[in-house]
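Table S2 (continued). Query chain:
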Amino acid sequence: MPDYSIVKSLCEELEVTVAELMDGEISEEKSVRTYDDEQIIDLLRRTQELEKQKNMLYGIMLIVMGIALQALSYAIGGSDFKDFISGLLLGLSIGEMLVGVFVVGKSLAGR
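Corresponding output:
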């Protein structure tokens, strides 16, 4: 789906209405439309904003889970096996936090 901001100009170039673009077909002359082009564009804008917010939330959740794993890795230790598990958890937490920062940064850059 194209960005909501270019849908109107795309429709003008294709010489179709927004409703026809969304339906994927040219509407009949007798057909009755119950929605306006501005309503559809507003719906597209809101949908894209919600998608960005969802991605931001996923990134924040990854960062928080990475912090929790890091705290858990510091709590484990003592024997060689526990030190290995602690190091493994620490590595996973750092990787998870980096992915979370990447997702949040990508979401912020898209705004």
